[in-house]
Amino acid sequence: MLLTITTTARPATDLGRLLRKHPDRVQSFEQTFGTAWVCYPEAGEDRCTAALLLEVDAARLARSHARSSGGDSLSRYVNDRPYAASSLLAVALGKVFSTARTGVSEDRPELAAAALPLEIGLPAVPCTGGPQLVRDLFAPLGWEVRAEAVPLPGFDADSRYVDVRLRGEVRLSDALSQLYVLLPVLDDAKHYWVDIGEVDKLVRSGGEWLAAHPLRGLIAARYLAHRKSYERAAFDRLAELAETAGPEADLAEDAETAEQSLPLHRIRIGAVVDALAASGAASVLDLGCGSGKLIAALLDDPRFTRITGADVSSRAIGMAERALRTDRMSERRRSRLTLVQGSVVYRDKRFADYDAAVLMEVVEHLDPGRLPAMERVVFGEARPRTVVVTTPNAEFNARYGMGGHEMRHADHRFEWDRAEFAAWAGAVADRYGYRVRIEGVGTVDPEAGTPTQMGVFDRA
């Protein structure tokens, strides 16, 4: 299996300095499953290409990873692992380019910190989700993606293998970390046993780019071999990281491409804030506030003079305090904010007397049997003038390469399609004396709709 990394930043041979592999030598690195080689097919001032070639020893792989290879004895020796870029290549990349992945260079620190014109080539990547999933995973990271299905003779008549070409201006360390995480995600399989230590690897390697990625749920699920407890641990860690990402990372260069350039959670927050502003609300109750992403946007808007965030998790409240930096807030800003621990399914006098309440990506975390309790608490007892509810559109999941029964988050109890959400929203509005309008949030697909659906309830 083969990975090539090309740059045209002059002098291009400085790529060798960042990778810590000299262009004039061929180097080999023993792995438990074979041998990795690094060489430079071209090395000039204007263009330089480093190649990582992994030669897999099928017999050694079968002996070393018999427990995870599965299948009958023949399939352990005859399979696509020596040819297709999967978790084996990710492991080799992580070890061979370990220093480059840190983003630190003693002799060229400015080069290590800079975005470079890079081209990545992967001739055969096994991908459960096809070329579209490759585009959905890499395009939000700033890559220009070319992905084409290719046959791998002898293994797959209806090929799941993709020729991947990436081009963009990216820090080399970021590019390597993205490949390290996403190669096993594309394959949706790992050749080794997955334990809790993989959560640290994922968060450490993903960092801020993963926390802001619109498919971070899919990435975490596949990287962690669909182990739900590990996914929850990863989501908690990523939620904290999401708050530390600089806002400039998500800005589009022009209005026409803004929606495609912004992560979905930021588009969603913008839609909710716009709905609240249109309602004329001055006081807002954010139910299930999590780590405070919506609250931060509300605090930045002077139209909202009283903001309360409530969450059943004391840990979430602590995360919100840290993310919002309440200890450093100005007195004027802090006077507009209250954070409380409380459950959306239990009557709470503190939820009363607000112009608007928000349930942003909350209802799908409730067991269906608890929905009536939530409806009574919010619509029947708190009774704000406006209630804004957002939830995933299950029909859009296929556009993320997900199967029919997959959900976007390990803690989701259900996900509604558009008809189901409209039916629920209409029934709640009729029962509690509200009017409701349904809106889509995010990029519109002609068949699947939008990734998020939003209901805006106004008290009749």
From TrEMBL:
UniProt xrefs under InterPro entries: 3'-RNA_MeTfrase_Hen1_bac, Hen1, Hen1_N, Hen1_N_sf, Methyltransf_12, SAM-dependent_MTases_sf
SUPFAM superfamilies reported for this sequence: S-adenosyl-L-methionine-dependent methyltransferases
Positions of the Hen1 N-terminal domain: 1-239
Origin: domain of life: Bacteria
Gene3D superfamilies referenced in this protein's UniProt entry, alphabetically: Hen1, N-terminal domain (3.30.1610.20), Vaccinia Virus protein VP39 (3.40.50.150)
Catalysed conversion reaction: small RNA 3'-end nucleotide + S-adenosyl-L-methionine = small RNA 3'-end 2'-O-methylnucleotide + S-adenosyl-L-homocysteine + H(+)
Domain (Methyltransferase type): residue spans on this chain: 285-373
Pfam families per the UniProt record, alphabetical: Hen1_L, Methyltransf_12
Cofactors: Mg(2+)
UniProt keyword terms in alphabetical order: Magnesium, Metal-binding, Methyltransferase, RNA-binding, RNA-mediated gene silencing, S-adenosyl-L-methionine, Transferase
Entry keyword Methyltransferase: yes
Keyword Iron: no
EC number: 2.1.1.386
Protein family membership: Belongs to the methyltransferase superfamily. HEN1 family.
The protein, known as: Small RNA 2'-O-methyltransferase
Species this chain originates from: Glycomyces mayteni
Source organism phylogeny: Bacteria, Bacillati, Actinomycetota, Actinomycetes, Glycomycetales
